[in-house]
Each structure stands twice: as structure tokens, then as C-alpha cells.
Amino acid sequence: MKSIRLSPEGNLDQFELRHMANIKSQKKRIITNEKRRQANAPIRTAMRSSVKAVEAAIAAKDHAAAVAAYNVANKRLDKAVAKGLVHKNFAARNKSRLSKHINALEA
Q1: Cα four-point dihedral sign 90, 103, 52, 47
Q2: Is 74 within a domain?
Q3: Per the domain annotation, does 22 fall within a domain?
Q4: Per DSSP, what are the bridge partners of residue 12?
Q5: Is the pTM of this model over 0.85?
Q6: Domain containing 66: what range?
Q7: Angle at 62 between CA 57 and CA 63, to 5 degrees
Q8: In angstroms, rounded to a whole number, what is the distance separating the alpha carbons of residues 5 and 18?
Q9: CB atoms within 10 A of CB 91
């Protein structure tokens, strides 16, 4: 999929305008979708990074660090669900999987 560039004013570059629909509502929708994608990207990245931090702590067999990272990941997963970035079952599955591994470290 081709990336769409927005100018600082929020308008599409002239080059991009040649490669899309002529319908005004569709042009507006493309701009809106791009703005939403750019707003959602840091939330999605933070969520994935926090889950990887938990997995790294689990791999290092560091229970305290894993619990601390899990609390952060839990919050970021819930935030992603609230924003509609991921499905609630995705977040629940990840939280369950991570907590199961953390509990196995403790035993």
C-alpha cells in the first residue's frame, strides 16, 4: 500500500492527488484515514514494545522485572482496546499468555 504524504497544513501533496478518486468525500476520507493512522501508530508501537519487554524479562527469568513490565503492558493493551486499535479478545489473550509465563517463573 502506498504511503500518503500530508503537508504541514494537513493537505495532500499534489503528486498524491493524481492517484486517487475524484470524489470530494473520498479525498476527505483518505486525509482522515491518514491522520488517524498517524495518531494510532505510536499507541500501537508502545503496546507492542511493552509486550516485548515482558517477553524479554521472562526470557531472562527475572520475575520482578517481568511483573513490572507486565503492569505497563497491561495498561497499554487496555488503552489500545479503548481506542479501538485491537480487539478485546486479542488483549485478553496476550494478558493471559504473559501472566501464565510470569506465574510459571515464580513456581
Answers
A1: positive
A2: yes
A3: no
A4: 6
A5: no
A6: 41-106
A7: 105
A8: 13
A9: 21
Per-residue pLDDT tens over the stretch 4-38: 666 656 566 544 555 578 889 998 998 999 999 99
Centroid of chain to Cα 62? 26
| Closest CA relative to residue 78, chosen from 42, 38, 43 | 43
Instruction: Return the C-alpha cell found at 31.
Output: 486525509
Residue 86 in any domain: the answer is yes
- Joined together, the cell numbers standing for residue 19 give 492517484
Please identify which residue in the block is written with the cell numbers 511483573.
Answer: 67
Kindly state the cell numbers that stand for 57. Answer: 524479562
Q: Using CA atoms, how far apart are residues 104 and 96, in angstroms rounded to an integer?
A: 12
**Tally of domains in the chain:** 1
| Paired strand residues for 6 | 12
Residue 17 belongs to a domain = no
Is there a contact between 10 and 32 (Cβ–Cβ < 8 Å)? no
